[in-house]
Amino acid sequence: MYDPLELAAKVRALVAKGIRRRYYRLGRGGRWYGGIATADCCGCNLRCCFCWSDYPRDHPQRAGRFYTPPEVFRGLVSCAQRRGYSQLRISGNEPTLNPEHLFVILELADEAGYRFILETNGTLIDPEYARSLSHFRNLHVRVSFKGTNPEEFSLLTGAVPRGFELQMEGLRNLWEAGVGCHPAVMASFSPDDNLKKFKEKLSEISPGMTQEVEEEYLISYPPVLRRLRERGIVPYGRIYQKV
Ligand code: SF4
Predict the structure, then answer these.
(1) pLDDT for the residue 196
(2) What are the residue ranges spanned by the domains of the chain?
(3) Can you name the residues that pair with 25 across neighbouring β-strands?
(4) Which ligand 1 atom is nearest residue 54's CA?
(5) With CB atoms 3.0 to 4.6 Å apart as the test, which of 1, 2, 24, 75 could cross-link to 63 if both were Cys?
(6) Nearest to residue 148, comparing CAs of 92, 85, 190?
(7) How far apart are CA 243 and CA 23, in angstroms?
């Protein structure tokens, strides 16, 4: 098993060069959040078995290239303008690995009046990181939990169970710093009772948060299904069929 914080340091060395960050795709459009322009970064500090973006995750030094924050921002805005979007995001892998790079993009989004959705696994958001994020007024953070408890987290990511607590602390830090945020959870591998307990745990951060949980479901990409079979992991049936 690996420690997500130790892996973050190793991956950061491959995907961050000063203010630059490695990306494998800039400016794709999509219907999520009602329409959003997306840049896909390389490199993550988790190894989820259901990840659809595993090549740029596992071979970040071979996927894509380095971009400065203004280059990424221009790619996002050009896509947003073509498609009439007012929202931007970084997705694909873990955007919080290079805060220096991320904060400049968030500043640019604020100045230009775009809403920015930061999709993260939350494990790297300590209190200081959360306070830095609180300065961006157009930011909303979606923390995506990998399972509903430490055991599920460890099964799905192959990481130490403590990583689940890092996710929970990340969400709590954001909430306490006043950053707009909500939890999402991969729920395809969780019995209903575990999901219920997960929501109860979230209510310790804020009672209203249980209403805001976004449930994510496995998408049946063939390589993902093959990986699950190899690892003997069986979903509970809540799956999106790939069409
Ligand atoms: S956190 Fe996201 S990008 Fe990272 S391994 Fe999990 S699903 Fe893939």
Answers:
(1) 95
(2) 4-240
(3) 40
(4) 8
(5) 24
(6) 190
(7) 26
Give mean pLDDT, residues 225-233: 88
Q: Which of 121, 123, 145, 155 to mutate to test the pocket of ligand 1 (most atoms within 8 A of CB)?
A: 121
**How far is residue 94's CA from residue 155's CA, in Å, rounded to a whole number?**
19
Mean pLDDT, residues 50-75: 93
What's the CATH number of domain 4-240, 3.20.20.140, 2.60.40.1930, 2.60.120.200, 3.20.20.70?
3.20.20.70
Give the number of the atom of ligand 1 that is nearest the alpha carbon of residue 52. Answer: 8
Q: Minimal CA–CA distance to 77: which of 109, 103, 48, 43? A: 109
- The Cβ-side half-sphere exposure at 188, using a 13 Å CA radius, reads 20
Identify the pLDDT of residue 135. 97
> What pTM does this model have?
0.94
Beta bridge partner(s), residue 182: 142
- In angstroms, the CA 57 to CA 53 distance is 6
